[in-house]
Amino acid sequence: MFDEEQFTGTKALAASHAFDIGALESWLQRELPGFAGPLTVEQFKGGQSNPTYKLVTPERRYVMRSKPGPAAKLLPSAHAIEREFRVMQALAPTAVPVARMQLLCEDEAVIGRAFYVMEFVDGRVLWDQSLPALDKAGRGAVYDEMNRVIAALHSVDVAAVGLADFGKPGNYFERQIGRWSRQYLASVTEPVAEMERLIEWLPSRLPASALDASQVSVVHGDYRLDNLIFDRAAARITAVLDWELSTLGHPLADFSYHCMAWHIPPGVFRGIGGLDHAALGIPSEADYLQRYCERTGRGDAAALLADWNFYLAYNLFRMAAITQGIAKRVVDGTASSAQAKATGAATRPLAEMGWRFAQAAG
Q1: Residue 310 clears pLDDT 80, i.e. is over it
Q2: Among candidate residues 240, 116, 241, 253, the one with its CA nearest the CA of residue 179
Q3: Rounded alpha-carbon distances, angstroms, from residue 104 to 63, 67, 110, 261
Q4: Full-model pTM
Q5: 298 neighbors 251 (Cβ within 8 angstroms)
Q6: If you average pLDDT over residues 232-257, what whole number do you get?
Q7: pLDDT of 195 over the 90 cut
Q8: Does the pLDDT value for residue 149 go beyond 90?
Q9: Which of 13, 131, 132, 324 could join 347 in a cystine, given CB atoms 3.0 to 4.6 angstroms apart?
Q10: Does the structure show a pLDDT above 60 at 59?
Q11: Residues 6+ apart with CB under 8 A from 194
């Protein structure tokens, strides 16, 4: 099991992600209304992709997200903090809880890499998906709230919030499989046979539900418990974090990714696979899917479950491609947390699990 303390709170700036705090303070003094130093900076312990910092002044607190290095040293399309900024700014007036955006800086001359600043949202981050600190009713309430918010996200009118051009046209799954195949191949440090099999199998086995071009929504791309901030006293999400992978896409890709927790055992990715969900007060995956379908008015839960092995195989493949990218960053020296090495090592077991779901799909 993971020690939650290693992810909670802040630490001193890692040497690999240190920057000129004076230069940042001077820029904020000029650009951010109401900002008043002196400024102190701490780095949040969690996060694998984009380093995240707590900016503290005598009167206010902010959060800064940055790329892990200059764009010239990063994979194309990775670490898209400018997209994070745009989507959260657009979702502010909707039912999806997000932090208030302050400023985006794409000028690498300020601190050596692009970054944005947003409000600091106080609350709880719940790392263990079995929610051991809560009672049965409390766990059920947290899971229902997660379901409510992802259903709200997938119900947003993308044109009304100015995100009609936030994704590319064409079949989402085909594009994503192609994207992550290329990203994996560009990041290989040690070949994984199951990834090569999935790269070949997935494009040929797309179910009809995945090919439905009418199903388009904002997708978060990494919607899970520990990317949410909850109110300290209630089962209410106050902010959804980490929008780096967000785009316009198929809502079932997003929702089935979220549901992988029911299949991944407790450990590296803190899943709830193999636990007694009923005893814990956590809904079954089928009940969770049914509630999502009721809230969105999208799809039939029983029919979707018939294709579920494909969706799980796809998402495990996608996760393995992401963790392989982290493994490559460890080699390149641009990984953003101490847990990056362990996360990168998860590529093979994720791919092996994905291939088992592919085989179960027939």
Answers
A1: yes
A2: 253
A3: 12, 12, 12, 33
A4: 0.87
A5: yes
A6: 94
A7: yes
A8: yes
A9: 324
A10: yes
A11: 348, 351, 352, 354, 355
